[in-house]
Every structure is written in structure tokens, then in C-alpha cells.
Amino acid sequence: MGQDTYQFEGYTQVLEERNLQSLVKYMKSEECKNVVVMLGAGVSTSAGIPDFRSPETGLYANLARLKLPYPEAVFEINFFRNNPRPFYTLARELMPGKFRPTLTHSFVRLLAAHNLLSKCFTQNIDTLERRAGVPPELIIEAHGSFASQHCIKCKSSYDGDVLRRHILDGKVAICKQKKCGGLVKPDIVFFGEQLPHEFHTSLPRLRDADLLIVMGTSLTVHPFASLASMVSDICPRVLINLDLVGNFGSRSDDVVLLGKTDDVVRDLARELGWEEELDALWKETESSVVDHLAPKKQPEVPVSVKAADIPGQPLVIQGERLKPNGDKEPTPSEEETLKSEVDKLASEIEKALNVSEALGTQEESKSEKATADESGATPAEKEDEVKL
Description:
With 388 residues, the chain is α/β, with parallel strands linked by helices. The protein has 13 helices and twelve strands. It has two domains: 1-143 and 189-290 and 356-388, Rossmann fold (3-Layer(aba) Sandwich); 307-353, no CATH class.
């Protein structure tokens, strides 16, 4: 169970005590009807999505191969206009559908299922809230997402399936509108762009909240970080995080539960009597993972055609492949086929970017990592917890 910690020394106003049991009792009461949730990068790391600055695994630490002037350039709109290829290469690694929503995402959906969720504000651009089944109208993607895409020149929308194909093929998507030819990018908020209109129009939900739950964020960047202070003084606030952040613990009804978000929400669901529902919802997310790199099924060559008539092409007879000389050729496994496709695409992208196999000296690598750690900048307001 998450560790309870707080700094406030006075009496509570709404909760009986500043602990999990009192929180559960309040959530079951008639007083708790409008729950607002804030999500950061920490809720997606267990899905396998790297954050931006973790040593070795952070995205910025692994951008050396893209030959960027500095790591954040990959998310700068002016840099994108001049050279969109680095972003397209990174986007392939972060393609929505590659990752399964976490238990925490399913917990947010569970709040919606119990008619408690008023709004879910997320810094993450990975669309895992949507894939977990949280109603789209309740989600505010503060830093945008891969859910939609537009031309940066004429602002016209672009087909999502076509963009995904371009990303996987290592090609830059160009607007198809007549006489435009602008670059296309997902609706992710880059440096130099405004936050979505929906972010600002949804702020009143915070003032009406009966409970605020903040999970997996460092609360270091505004305006997102300021949301935690917009709820009323008598609105209980809950922090579920690895570390104490922001001004949590300074209000009378702040509850701080330290630990991994998936572990703590399971404890909370168990106390609420929702654990079986939570597990069932999370199980549903298994089908949300999409294999973008799965090779298309090749048409089988009719058995009546001779191998000699198709130089170098094998025949397919009842699932077996025959070499031109008539010998059987073992059918590649799904894993072997996938690896071959990944290697091929990676090779094409690396070649297009002119990236050398030698990534420089150890000192240069350390310098780039240091730059990423010290910069304090991430997409959309330079948040070190913003996720892809």
C-alpha cells in the first residue's frame, strides 16, 4: 500500500483523516460526485513508454543517432519545418498502438464507469487513455496527441492511416490539398505552439471538483502544474506518485500515497470493492495493441505455375514454400518475419537521415545526455514528465 505522508499539521475539513481508508469512505459518499484526474508520464512508463530524461532509457538520451543540434529540436516547430525527418523517425518508435494501457489507465476508465469522472487532464501524447476506454469527451490532452493530424500550412486534416503508413515507411507526409504541399504532423503541441483550445475551456471543471487525483507527474511545468491549485480549498487532493511533488501536503485534506501508480490504484480499487472490475477492464486492453509492422499476406503462386517460369520466386503448396529447384524451404516464423521488417525499415530510415553507425566518442555521448538532463525542456511547455 502507498505510504501516507503529509506536512499539514491542522485538522482536516472534509476527510476524517489524511489516509487511504478515509479517502475510500469519502469516495463512497454522496459528497463525492465530480472527480478530476491529472496524469503525467509516470502512468505510462509501466507500459514500456520511456520518459524524456531517465538515464539510458529516456528519449532525449537516445536521440544522438538523429544528429540533432540539441535533443529538444525534434519537438520544435521551426526545426520541423526545415527538417521533419528526425521527428518522423522518432514517431515510428512511439507509434500509438504499440503499447498497452496500464492498470492506472483502466482505473481512470473505472471512475468513468462509476459516473465519478468529471475530466481527465493528461500531459501524455500516447493516447493510452483512449485505448483504455476512457470516454473521449472526458479526456483533455493538454499537450496534444497522435489521435489526429493536420497540415501545418493550410491546417486541413489528414488521414490517420495514411500518415501511419508514411511514418512506418520512413517517408514524410505532404498535404494533398491543391497548391498547398505543406508538411503534415500529428496534433502534438510542439515548442512554439499554443495549447489546445479545449484545455482552457475545461478549466471550470476544476473549480467544481469534489476530488482531485494527481498521478505520475512532477508538477514542474505550467500551466499544467497550476491545475492542482485551481480546485477549491475544501476539495480533497490525492497525489499518487513515486515522490512528493508540488505543494501537496500543504492543504488540510491532501492525501499523499507514494509508490508506483499501478500498485497504489490496485490498493485503492481493492478498498473500494472494485478490484475485480479493474482487472476485467484491464484485460480488455489486451486487444488494443496493434502490430503495425506485421507484414501483409503475400498472394500465393498457383501450383500450376512452374518454378522455372518465375525466376527466384518460390512456390507455395499447402503452406510450404518450395525453392526453384523443388526443395522445401521452411516458412519463416512470425518473429523472424517481424525482425526482418524492423531491420529493413530501420536501415532505410538511418540511410535517409545520413546517420553514421559510429555514434561518436563516449565523451560526446555523455555530453548529450547531460544536455538532456539539464535542459529542463520537453514538448509543450518543457515538461520533464511529458510522454509520447
